[in-house]
Amino acid sequence: MSMDTLRTEVDRSLGEFLDRQRPIVSGPDLAPLLNAARELLSGGKRLRPAFCYWGWRAAGGGDEPGIFVAAASLELLQASALVHDDVMDKSDLRRGMPSAHRRFQRLHEKSDWYGSAEQFGEGAAVLLGNLLLIWSGEMWRSSGLPNLEATQPFHDHMRTELMCGQYLDLLEQAHGENTFESALRVALYKSGKYSVEQPLRLGLTLAAGGGAPWIEELCVEYGNRVGIAFQLRDDILGVFGDPVETGKPAGDDLREGKRTMLIARTLAAATPEDAATVRRLLGDPDLDAEGVDKLRGVIEASGALDECEEMIARYLEESLASLDDAPITTEARSALADLAVAATSRKT
Amino acid sequence: MSMDTLRTEVDRSLGEFLDRQRPIVSGPDLAPLLNAARELLSGGKRLRPAFCYWGWRAAGGGDEPGIFVAAASLELLQASALVHDDVMDKSDLRRGMPSAHRRFQRLHEKSDWYGSAEQFGEGAAVLLGNLLLIWSGEMWRSSGLPNLEATQPFHDHMRTELMCGQYLDLLEQAHGENTFESALRVALYKSGKYSVEQPLRLGLTLAAGGGAPWIEELCVEYGNRVGIAFQLRDDILGVFGDPVETGKPAGDDLREGKRTMLIARTLAAATPEDAATVRRLLGDPDLDAEGVDKLRGVIEASGALDECEEMIARYLEESLASLDDAPITTEARSALADLAVAATSRKT
């Protein structure tokens, strides 16, 4: 199955699921919630559904409608995380459009309502994120696949782990200085696990029921590594990404003071003067284009950018090698290889 | 079963469930999340579990361990709503203690961490609320009761409805002037449904499987009415409650500008001068004790307080009368009658 066909199936499943919420989320007052959900779900690379779907296929699953429902539900979890993330970071933009809380704030302002528009926007976005979170579990279960019950513990685990990972991410920024080890932990738990390893594990387990040893091996040797490389790419895009492609302002992670592997490696290798510059500018909400350029220069000069690119290349290479040993079809092997490349070399 | 014994079973089930999260929510970094969850769950009236349990008993269920697990899971949903509510309202206190986001803010301040302590507190509380929300569904399903699958659609419905109800509540404050009809809708959807009617329906359906007509009748004639009366009592406590009992500052709802039935009736019946006073003072975040007293005086003088008390009394009376026709045991009838009284005459 091509990525385009998969995308079409995922889109259709999401549309049908949201339509089924209409009797509850009904009337003009509640329409903005459902509209916001639809818009949020209209974009995205559908990587998580793809890892889930190809896990399923790798373990012998066929093209049943249920797998598209299960895989698509992961987009709801992701959308929930993005909406809440933007509230927590007070981000104005997401994929080049106003973030959900800013949209609700704007609705308040346009409607000339009472009270603080900002507070209304944040409150509405918290609730929208909650709906998406609830729906992700509901849609997952609605797939009706036979091994749902055996897979549910992994699904539960993934969601708790994601929230813990995001908390570790908050802590990492709060702690200031970070280490290679702590940066790797955050990359894995706030993103790598639920973006790659867990969707893959869910798909594999949905098809195979119990966990054959090769399944766990594939999750760790391939999924875990692609997951970390996926987040390292994200870290690089957060600093060097093209705003036109990422839909976020240039150097947004620098302004937010994100403590990533890129930063940990920069501080470890930079000259004392350059390190002082990083400590001074990183996390300055008013950082301008000149400041962004300055920090980018220091990160490049320290060798940290090259090091992170090498890490990504190494993780990718090892993950691809691990596919050779897995007892899966040629089609699944080739699709997972393509996905690993797509997830780690993306521009958005 | 006495309310005290039920409480013990609920407490034990919650403790065991949280213990099972330890392998994921592990280590000193994540401990504050689990500790905060434990503290949040140590208090509360356990009304929602009680309505669920007595629904189960009313439809013929016995004292199996699973029902305590299912009933207790409703406390996780409630705790999640409280944590997020306090973030959305920027409330400092909950049950006389600092609210969750203020605790995390304090942790940041005490630890002398980087960045905004307030933003860290809010972010951590959003994540804590998410964990509690996820866990409420996970614990519910872990009860292992035979009719779980038949009941799941009601459970899903309840959670989506709760988020929509909370959004309607935000809208109600934003709209300013409200009507009896809109106030009733908000009272029902933001609180009445998930506090009384839905827990009752879940318990009944868990025991009976499909929905016999008397079950739906009991949910509407009894559950719906007790739910509205429950929230009307909440509205009165938010204005006239004793801070020692409620754990919230006196007149907190007035400062937050909550547009409740009490306020709708006040504005409909007050003299033009008094109505102008309400419009001027309601929602003033700096409202002092004198202002609170002034507003209380206007609400009482308008007759709105008496009207709301009469509404509660009428809903209670009708709900109690509906119990007479239900084909349930004397023990369940008496317990549900006691619960209706407790839910509508409480001081906290």
Automatic annotation (TrEMBL), chains A, B:
Check the record and name the CDD domains matching this protein: Trans_IPPS_HT
Q: Which keywords label this protein?
A: Magnesium, Metal-binding, Transferase
Any single GO molecular-function term of the entry would be: dimethylallyltranstransferase activity
Q: Which Pfam families match?
A: polyprenyl_synt
Q: What is its EC number?
A: 2.5.1.1, 2.5.1.10, 2.5.1.29
Q: Which family does it belong to?
A: Belongs to the FPP/GGPP synthase family.
Q: What is this protein called?
A: Geranylgeranyl diphosphate synthase type I
State the organism named in the record: Nonomuraea dietziae
